[in-house]
Amino acid sequence: MAIKKVQTNGKTQYEVIVKVRDKSGRQVMRRKRWFNNERDARKAEFELMMELEGHKTKVTWKQWVGHVLEKYRVEYRNSTYHNYKHCLNKWFNPVWNDKFIDDIKPSDVHAAVFETNEDTSSYTKRGLLKIVKRVFNIAIEEGLIVRNPAVGIRVRCAEANQGVLNKNEIEILLREARRIDHRFFPHWTLALLTGMRSGELYSLRWTDVDLVTGKITISKAWTRYNGEGPTKTAKNRIYPISSECRKFLEELKLKYSKDSEFVLPRLWEWNQGDQAKILKNFCGEIGITPVKFHDLRATFITQMLNNGVPLSKVMAIVGHSSLKTTQGYLRLSGKDVEGATESLNIAVPVIEERFDNVVELRKR
To answer: Cα separation of 194 and 208, whole Å?
Structure first.
């Protein structure tokens, strides 16, 4: 199968070629041209494939998922493709493989999410529903079905508790980590001083740090599945280096990464994605809130808000694409309701101590 992009008279058009082998092993080919956009070409490609395989009007879930996964493999990040593949193969394919997609009803989706997966958490159910909705939406876009059977189904999730450290716990963490020269001390310190994500810290190079102008350029992030690529929002941002951060960066350069292009030492636990477990265990050992590595970012944000930094500035520094996300941390810090209860005007009566009985006893 192939979709070819062709320039004709200065205009981009698409040609579709589909080849399959029949029962005798002979190759059969179909071609369609000219399409003005890739979406129509992809739809025609799939219709031709189904026609050659003898499925002119009905497409099974298995066939459709194969088509969608191929689309995701080409168009999306490797981690997204593998996540979709794993979830669909584990939770939906065993039940729906031989069903025609236009025969799948809302009751089937509800059963797959809530009954087949009844032992999973509400967050997992919500994630599965989100994936299957997208699979049906693509079928609508390509003209195979007219209605998404997953629309209208909801999964209620309690708000997750975000772990953060208070000011005192931050001091204890850094003091104890430095005291024993913990291998993750530089990583935890820079995370708390900058609010950068783990993958952004992993990709941070000395060429991104400008101590003269006092700025760090954050433009890359690393993950185990995708390697190095753009940041989560695919946008670059600038972190203004604080005086404390400047001192620590100078120390880092001399002590930890003198001959390295990277700001932070590469540790095997970091490569394997175990940085969250390492921090959580250490917090438990020293008696503070057991947070994970990403919670250091939340701690940075709440400390900024507690110290009166405007929402818009915090949003720009940490790279949130939506103000709503930053406002969630405002609620977490409690800054939005600070002092509000002073207007209650409820006074608790004071009980005055009386010694009448003591005096009377003495008189007797």
So the answer is: 14
Buried b or exposed e, range 321-334, using 16+ CB within 10 angstroms: eeeeebeebbebbe
Return left, alpha or beta for 10; rule: phi > 0 is left, psi -120 to 50 is alpha, else beta.
left
pLDDT tens for each residue of 169-199: 999 999 999 999 999 999 999 999 999 999 9
Beta-sheet strand order (sheet of 237-240):
209-210, 215-218, 237-240
Q: Are 221 and 200 in contact (CB under 8 A)?
A: yes
Q: Which of 157, 173, 168 is nearest to 293 (CA)?
A: 173
Scanning the chain, the segments in alpha helix (DSSP H) are 38-52, 61-75, 78-87, 93-96, 106-110, 122-141, 167-179, 185-194, 198-203, 243-255, 268-271, 275-286, 295-306, 311-318, 323-333, 356-363
pTM: 0.70
pLDDT (0 to 100) of residue 364: 47
Domains with residue ranges and CATH for the chain: 1-54 (no CATH), 58-158 (1.10.150.130), 168-291 (1.10.443.10)
Write out pLDDT tens, residues 122-163: 888 999 999 999 999 998 888 788 789 999 999 887 766 778
3-state secondary structure of 335: helix
Torsion of CA 111, 113, 118, 120, to 10 degrees: 170
